Amino acid sequence: MDRVVVRWIAVFWLTAMAEGLQVTVPDKKKVAMLFQPTVLRCHFSTSSHQPAVVQWKFKSYCQDRMGESLGMSSLRAQSLSKRNLEWDPYLDCLDSRRTVRVVASKQGSTVTLGDFYRGREITIVHDADLQIGKLMWGDSGLYYCIITTPDDLEGKNEDSVELLVLE
User: Fold this and answer.
1) How many other β-carbons are positioned within 10 Å of the β-carbon of residue 148?
2) Model confidence over 86-99: pLDDT tens digits?
3) Where are the domains of the chain?
4) 20 within 8 A of 149, measured Cβ to Cβ
5) Residue 22 pLDDT > 50
6) Distance (Å, rounded) from C-alpha 38 to C-alpha 29?
7) What is the pLDDT of residue 83?
8) Are 125 and 106 in contact (CB under 8 A)?
9) Are strands 53-59 and 141-148 parallel, antiparallel or unpaired?
10) Do 103 and 113 form a contact (C-beta atoms < 8 A)?
């Protein structure tokens, strides 16, 4: 009986080691109201015994999404996205064509806000959830949850959620 338990523990441990770091954001798109609080969820699993560094990055839309949300998207964007169903004209562009900035980072229990977000009610709660106290107009965009561990370099270390702030 003891051998069976030891074997199962070994198989479980090897499986966990093979998977490596796995980051998932359960909600791929979130709509929230202006001046209201929100939480962007991020879950991760790792075989590392070292503390993970959590970082949330913001990437602006490639073009204004408010027109689409009000039913006024451009004909050019509609025709391009119909030709290539995998391509989204609002989300898919080079970082050099949009604003990219660090929102917050957490190492251990210390949370550090990016320069643009200092003075705002923003923190990382639980293991890796981004909590924003009061949404502003410029908060609409893509948010990337990025997890770094010193000794777990395999797997998927980031995932993203789209946040659309409405009035």
Assistant:
1) 18
2) 778 888 899 999 99
3) 20-60+99-165
4) no
5) yes
6) 13
7) 53
8) no
9) antiparallel
10) yes
CA–chain centroid gap for 99, Å, is 16
Domain covering 20-60+99-165 assigned CATH 3.30.950.10 in the classification:
no
Backbone angles phi, psi at 82, to 5 degrees: -70, -35
In the chain, what's the furthest Cα-to-Cα distance?
A: 68
Q: Which amino acid, one-letter code, is at 148?
A: T
**Considering the entire predicted model, what is its pTM?**
0.78
CA separation for the pair 40, 146 (Å, rounded): 13
Closest-CA residue to 128 (of 103, 144, 145):
145
pLDDT tens column, 104-149? 999 999 999 999 999 999 999 999 999 999 999 999 999 999 999 9
Closest CA to 77 of 86, 61, 90, 66: 90
Cβ proximity of 103 and 117 under 8 Å: yes
- Residue 128 pairs in a beta bridge with none
In one-letter notation, the amino acid at residue 151 is: D
**What's the distance, CA 156 to chain centroid?**
12
> Does pLDDT of 14 surpass 50?
no
Cα 117 to the chain's mean position, in Å? Answer: 16
Contact (Cβ atoms closer than 8 angstroms) between residue 157 and residue 43 = no
